[in-house]
Amino acid sequence: MARLTIGQKAERVLLLLLGLRKNKVATVLVAHGFKDSDLAEGWELLRRLTRTRLGAIAVIAARDPGLITMLDDWENQWFPIAEASLKRRLPAVHGWMFRNLAQTEGPAVIVSVSTFVDRWDSLSEPKDQGGPDEGGEDAKTLLATRGLTEAVIDEARQLLTRAGQVEPAIEDNGAPAGDDDFAKAEADLWAWYLEWSTIAQTKIKSRRLLRELGFRRTTSSKGGAEEEEEEEEKKEDAANAKPGADAHGKKPKGG
Questions:
Q1: Contact indicator for 40, 192 with CB cutoff of 8 Å
Q2: How far apart are CA 40 and CA 138, in angstroms?
Q3: What is the pLDDT of residues 160-219, one digit of tens each?
Q4: Among 96, 14, 22, which Cα is nearest to 52's?
Q5: Is the pTM of this model over 0.90?
Q6: With contact defined as beta carbons under 8 Å apart, do 206 and 24 qualify?
Q7: Cα–Cα distance measured from residue 112 to residue 170, given in angstroms and rounded to the nearest whole number
Q8: Could you tell me if 135 and 89 are in contact, meaning their C-beta atoms sit under 8 angstroms apart?
Q9: Are 46 and 14 in contact (CB under 8 A)?
Q10: Is the pLDDT of residue 122 over 60?
């Protein structure tokens, strides 16, 4: 199984955190010891990893879908150019720049582009301050010849700033600087997710809720499999909406 990228991990954590706004999800986890401090820990760990104003991500897709599209277009254009150029000419910098980073989609694109811009900003920094071991300035020069200039990076910054304006900024106490700290931040976040997502998946039976939490991935329809799942979700909803109803939403005879 392919290793998840930063963006993919952040998206899964985000879906779980947002899902906790639903009473049916929160009630399940609270029954197993989930507290406000655990919720706060999840948001803090996510913030530490990404250095984005994560409160904004929760509403961007609904309020400003065009922003997601523009960030996705930016990512689709510049990630492949940067990756191809660095991989051939500066492989060590390429490994640093794209460590656990790949193109993504949806709200997770905010995380991936933000991480890319943060690393571009750090290219000129020494390793002990979060930059690559060497070759950072050469990488900036190379990428500029490919069209990835400061002005183009500013385009991404402006889009990310627009994302941060959707909700009040979350105080940033600084992000991990070095590779070791970054790896620890990633490990801590994923450990938090694995603990609570395991409990949620074990106790929640609703297909719809599981899909919304990111646990059931929609795939292309083969033999009507997707339609069948959606039909099962409708039956579940009907059953839950009518006390005493069976899986088809019908009350048993004599009930």
A1: no
A2: 40
A3: 888 766 443 344 444 444 556 767 888 999 999 999 999 999 999 998 888 888 886 544
A4: 14
A5: no
A6: yes
A7: 19
A8: no
A9: yes
A10: yes
